[in-house]
Write a structure and sequence with these properties.
By secondary structure, this protein is α/β, with parallel strands linked by helices. It is built from 19 helices and 20 strands. Helix 9 links the parallel strand 11 and strand 12. The chain is elongated and about 95 Å long.
C-alpha cells in the first residue's frame, strides 16, 4: 500500500531558489496575507516507509510541493504523488546567497505556500530534534503562513528498537540525554559534558561518527567508565543497517576500523537484551538497490516484491502513459465492441484506457454482448478481472506470438478488435490477417518519455547508487539509454522479454539477465538466480554508498 504513490521529478518550482537569501524580501509581487497555502513539517522516520505515521503518509499524498532532506530514503519518496513538485534541499541551498540554512529554507517554504500550495517539508527522523525547525519556522510566522508539525520516529528510539536496547530501565537507567555529535560551527558555547547529568542514565549521540574520538573522550573525562556499553546503529531500518557492540573506551577505534557509514546513532550506557530472533533465510537480493523504471502508479507490486526478497527499490519512472493522439478511434471502438468475436488486450494500460472510455460513455459489461476477451499475460488478465470482466484466453507464452499460436486451432474466419499502444508491435495484426481473420487495430494509449529534469535524476543516482536496472519494454529501454547513456555499463540490466533484450543489444547495452516469462516475478527470479550464481564475485554485499551526506 505504501508504494502505491510514485514520484516523478519536476524541477520547476513556485519560487526560484536563487531569489531566496537572508538580505532580500521573499517575492515582492506576492500578497502573503491573501494566500491560503499551508506548510507541514513531516517526520520521515529512520528510513523505511512502514515506520511512517498514517498522518505523515496522508500529508505526502496530498502535497503539491515536497522539500526533502538527503537522508530521506527512496522508499519514502515513492509515496509522493507523481504530480507533486519534488525538491532536494541541497538544490535550494546551492543557488542561495544566504548564510543561514534554516532561514533560507524557511523563506523558500513561505514563498511556495504563498502561491496557495500545500507544502511538505520532509525531514529525516522527527522534525523537532536536531532539524533546524525553529529557524525554518521563523519566516513562516513573519509572513503569516500557517503550518503544523507531524512527528516522526526519531533515530534514538528507532535505533534502540533495532538493537533491542531499552533507553531507560528502573534498575539501570532512569534518565535519557540526547546529544548531537556535530554541533554548529557558529554556536557560541559548546557542549559541557560534565554538566549534562550524564554520570548516570543513557546517552544517545546523533550524527557522531566523524566526532567519535571527541565525544567519547569528553564522556570519559566526565566520569564514565571505559567499560560502559556502547551500541552503534548505522543506517537504522535501511536494508544495509549495521549494529556494532563496543565500549566507551574503544568505540572511536572500532568506528574507524569498521568504517560504518552515516547516519549512525550511538547508544551509551544500556546493555542490549539477548532476544531469540526469527531465523531469516539469506536472500540473494540482500544489499542490492534495484532501479525500477515502470510508469508512475504501476510499480507498487514490484517494489513490495523487491523488499520481500531483501533488496531495496528506487522508483524512477522513465515514461508516462497518456491517451492516444486520436481519442475518437477508441471511442468508436468501444461503441462497436459488441460486433467483434474477440477483443485482445495486450497490456494493463490498454485495459485501463478501454474501460475508462466505457465509463465515460456510461456503458457497462453488458454493452460487450457475447464478445470473447483475451489477454497477453497474467497481469493483463488480472486487470480485466478487476474491472469485472471475464478473460476467456491467456496464451501460454506472454507475447503476441503466443496468442497467434493459441488461436491456430480456430478454423473459421473471425473478427478481432486489437487494443494496444500507439507504438505497439504489429505482430498480432499481421499474423491474424495472414490466417484469414479480420482485424481492427486501435491505439488506446501512448507512451512518452517523462519530463523529469536530468540533473535531478543524476543527483538521485549519485545519492543512491544502484546495482540493477529493470527494463520492462523496448520503449523504456530506449528511453533508459537516452537518459543514462554509459551509466548503464556500470549497472546490471534486467530485461523482461526477448524483444526488450533485442532492443538493448541493438543499442549497445546487452542485458545481464532476461526473464523466462514476461512477468515481474519472473524478472526478479532471474535476478536472484544470477546473484546466486555469482555470489562470490558480484553479490550485492551491501547497498551501494553514495557521496557523503552532509550533517547538521
Amino acid at each position: 500500500m505504501l508504494e502505491r504513490r510514485k514520484f516523478r521529478y519536476q524541477m520547476k518550482s513556485p519560487v526560484d531558489p536563487s531569489d531566496n537569501n537572508n538580505n532580500s524580501p521573499l517575492v515582492s509581487a506576492v500578497d502573503y496575507a491573501q494566500r491560503h497555502g499551508h506548510v507541514l513539517f513531516v517526520g520521515a522516520g529512520p528510513g523505511q516507509p512502514d515506520l511512517l505515521t498514517v498522518r505523515a503518509i496522508r500529508a505526502l499524498e496530498q502535497a503539491d510541493v515536497v522539500v526533502h532532506d538527503q537522508l530521506v530514503s527512496p522508499a519514502v519518496l515513492n509515496i509522493i504523488q507523481p504530480s507533486a513538485q519534488k525538491i532536494l534541499l541541497s538544490e535550494i541551498l546551492e543557488r542561495s546567497s544566504g548564510n543561514d540554512t534554516g532561514v533560507t529554507l524557511g523563506t523558500y517554504l513561505a514563498g511556495c505556500a504563498a502561491k496557495g500550495h500545500t507544502v511538505v517539508r520532509l525531514k529525516g527522523g522527527d522534525p523537532t530534534i536536531f532539524a533546524r525547525l525553529r529557524e525554518e519556522i521563523e519566516p513562516l510566522i513573519e509572513h503569516s503562513i500557517s503550518f503544523e508539525i507531524i512527528p516522526g520516529i526519531t533515530s534514538a528510539t528507532a535505533a534502540a528498537a533495532a538493537a533491542v536496547t531499552p533507553l531507560t530501565s528502573r534498575s539501570i537507567s532512569s534518565s535519557l540525554t540526547i546529544v548531537t555529535g556535530h554541533e554548529a560551527k557558529d554556536k557560541k558555547e559548546t557542549l559541557d559534558y560534565e554538566n549534562l547529568s550524564i554520570q548516570e542514565g543513557t546517552i544517545v549521540i546523533y550524527m557522531g561518527v566523524e566526532q567519535a574520538q571527541h565525544w567519547s573522550n569528553a564522556i570519559l573525562k566526565a566520569g564514565r567508565s571505559p567499560d560502559t556499553p556502547v551500541t552503534l546503529v548505522s543506517r537504522c531500518s535501511w536494508p544495509d543497517q549495521r549494529i556494532i557492540q563496543t565500549t566507551l573506551g574503544s568505540c572511536a577505534l572500532d568506528i574507524d576500523i569498521s568504517k560504518i557509514p552515516s547516519p549512525a546513532v550511538a547508544l551509551i550506557g544500556e546493555t542490549p537484551i539477548s532476544s531469540p530472533k526469527r531465523k531469516k533465510q539469506a536472500s540473494p537480493l540482500q544489499g542490492c538497490r534495484l532501479l525500477v523504471t515502470r510508469p508512475a502508479g504501476q510499480a507498487g507490486p514490484v517494489i513490495a516484491d523487491i523488499a520481500q526478497r531483501g533488496g531495496e527499490a528506487m522508483h524512477l519512472p522513465l515514461v508516462d502513459i497518456v491517451p492516444a493522439s486520436d481519442p475518437i478511434e477508441l471511442q468508436t471502438a468501444v461503441d462497436d465492441a459488441w460486433s467483434f468475436d474477440w477483443i485482445i488486450f495486450t497490456s494493463v494500460n490498454g485495459v485501463d484506457h478501454f474501460c475508462r472510455q466505457m465509463r465515460l460513455r456510461e456503458l457497462d459489461p453488458r454493452a460487450l454482448g457475447s464478445v470473447q476477451l483475451a489477454a497477453i499475460g497474467p497481469a493483463t488478465k488480472k486487470a480485466l478481472e478487476e474491472q469485472g470482466l471475464v478473460c476467456d484466453l491467456v496464451p501460454d507464452r506472454f507475447l503476441s506470438e503466443g496468442f497467434v499460436h493459441a488461436l491456430n486451432q480456430v478454423g473459421r474466419r473471425q473478427r478481432f478488435l486489437l487494443i494496444q499502444a500507439e507504438r505497439g508491435r504489429d505482430v498480432l495484426h499481421r499474423e491474424l490477417e495472414a490466417a484469414g481473420h479480420e482485424v481492427r487495430r486501435v491505439a488506446a494509449y501512448a507512451s512518452q518519455p517523462t519530463s523529469s529534469d536530468r540533473q535531478t535524476v543524476f543527483r538521485m543516482i549519485e545519492q543512491f547508487p544502484v546495482s540493477w536496472i529493470l527494463l520492462t519494454s523496448s520503449f523504456i529501454a530506449e528511453t533508459a539509454v537516452n537518459v543514462f547513456g554509459d551509466h548503464l555499463l556500470t549497472w546490471k540490466i534486467a530485461s523482461i522479454s526477448p524483444i526488450t533484450s533485442s532492443k538493448l543489444t541493438e543499442l549497445g547495452y546487452p542485458a545481464t539477465v532476461e526473464a523466462t516469462e514476461a512477468t515481474m516475478k519472473s524478472l526478479l527470479d532471474s535476478i536472484e538466480s544470477w546473484q546466486q550464481n555469482h555470489i562470490e564475485a558480484s553479490a550485492c554485499k551491501e547497498i551501494p554508498a553514495g557521496k557523503t551526506v552532509p550533517t547538521e
